[in-house]
Amino acid sequence: MLAARLMRDQGIHVEGINFFTGFCVEGHTHAIRSSKQDKPKRNNALWSAEQIGIKLHIVDVIDEYKDVVINPKHGYGAHLNPCLDCKGFMVRKAREWMELHGFDFIVTGEVIGQRPMSQRRDTMPVVARESGAFDRLLRPLCAKLLPETLPEREGWVDREKLLDFSGRSRKPQIALAASFGFTEFSQPAGGCCFLTDENYTVRLNDLWTNRRTKDYELDDILLLKIGRHLRPRPGFKLIVGREEGENNFLNGYRRDFTHLFAVSHAGPLALVDGIANDADLDFAARLLARFGQGRDADKVTIEIHARGAAARTLDVVPLHRDEIPESWYL
Amino acid sequence: MSHHELDARRLLCPLPVIRAQNRMQDLLPGDTLEVICTDPGALYDIPAWCRMYGHEVVDTQQTREEVRITLRVCTPGDKP
């Protein structure tokens, strides 16, 4: 947002590109969970583009991005975040878009030293090189600390009006935003990707381990964001809605999953991911009963819809809290 | 001029916008597209995207289960 505004202030025509990988945090989580009603249910990239008056192109890179997540050449950060590969990938996609649409150079909001993996002095040239953007990649917020790029040499951009931000502090950016009159801005600390989230990546690793393949589909990675995930044994797990918004979302998957819910008491919907036999489902019913309003009842009636089989109901005694080991929670 | 429907149920922000954006590129000026979503975030995102490109939001309807947003394609040249 800041970098684009700096360019606009130099009279340069700017259009935004936002890549959707499937791991983006904001939109999904806020849209799903009823408890986050206070958060604006909006796409921050669209909102930011509107604030600075530029067009935004949102590009679906879900399938292509898989290779970045599964086989990162530069490895992962603290969790499953392939930040350097990701940055190289996105700048490459931006470079392809630039060439296709007759634009001259790419601008990013990167700052030297801001991120431990992809925004270091030694890794920023890697992004420029591996993306194929080379000196058509301009980082206006820290350009004065970097070698001149093509747009500066050609005089398209006035280097003197570019900035020299560095380090992890966001104070200079926040001050710049204030000088532009931006009173609200999106996620300032790069925490907009689930691959940097420890809990999420535990779930993703568990998915890969239990499927014995390091792969995923979009629905897999969306469902990892939702509900409680409990794995009583290898082979199947339960995804249990935590509140109305999550239950509504999980409802949309009923046709694709074996699922169960209480009919005698209010309670959540649970999807069964994996292969569960009748004994597993009977046990899953007891486990699910623990999370509904019948948790302290002597008996809860659960309706079980196994894929490819007729629905059946089962009266169960809810599991006691002590019967659910912490290790089942993902 | 013709009317089209886009089923974006179960898709979450920003996928309904991406699907609408891609579908609108194939339509003619004056055509209408009714996007059916289950993500209430679409109520903000799709109109915001339309404002950016000059497309018209003809109607929005929201029920407990879903959101329906009807768009009219703008004139050529303003398309993404």
Topology readout:
The complex is a heterodimer of chains A (330) and B (80).
Chain A: H1 2-9, E1 16-20, H2 26-32, H3 44-52, E2 56-60, H4 62-70, H5 83-101, E3 106-107, H6 124-130, E4 137-138, H7 150-153, H8 171-180, H9 198-211, H10 218-223, E5 228-233, E6 236-240, H11 244-251, E7 258-262, E8 269-274, H12 278-289, E9 300-305, E10 312-316
Parallel strand pairs in A: 1-2, 3-4
Antiparallel strand pairs in A: 5-6, 6-8, 7-8, 7-9, 9-10
Helix pairs in contact in A: 5-6
Chain B: E1 3-8, H1 15-24, E2 32-37, H2 42-53, E3 56-62, E4 67-72
Parallel strand pairs in B: 1-2
Antiparallel strand pairs in B: 2-4, 3-4
Please give a structural write-up.
Chain A has 330 residues and is an alpha+beta fold. Chain A folds into two domains: 194 residues, Rossmann fold, CATH 3.40.50; 103 residues, no CATH class. Chain A contains twelve helices and ten strands. In chain A, a hairpin with a 6-residue loop joins strand 9 and strand 10. In chain A, helix 5 crosses helix 6. Chain A starts with a helix and ends in a 14-residue tail after the last strand. Chain B is of the alpha+beta class and 80 residues long. Chain B has a single domain, classed as Translation Initiation Factor IF3 (2-Layer Sandwich). Chain B has two helices and four strands. A four-stranded mixed beta sheet of chain B has the order 1-2-4-3, covered by helices on one side. Chain B is globular, with a radius of gyration of 11 Å. Chain B starts with a strand and ends in an 8-residue tail after the last strand.
Write the CATH fold name of the largest domain in chain A: Rossmann fold
Mean pLDDT over all positions of chain B: 90
How many domain regions of chain A? 2
Detail the poorly predicted runs of chain B.
none
What distance separates the N and C termini of chain B?
20 Å
The total beta strand count of chain B reads 4
- What CATH architecture of the largest domain in chain A do you see? 3-Layer(aba) Sandwich
Percent in strands of chain A: 5-15%
Instruction: Assign an overall shape of chain B.
Output: globular
**CATH level 1 class label of chain B:** Alpha Beta
Helix % of chain B is 25-40%
What does the largest sheet of chain A look like? Answer: 6 strands, antiparallel
Mean pLDDT of chain A: 91
CATH architectural type of chain B: 2-Layer Sandwich
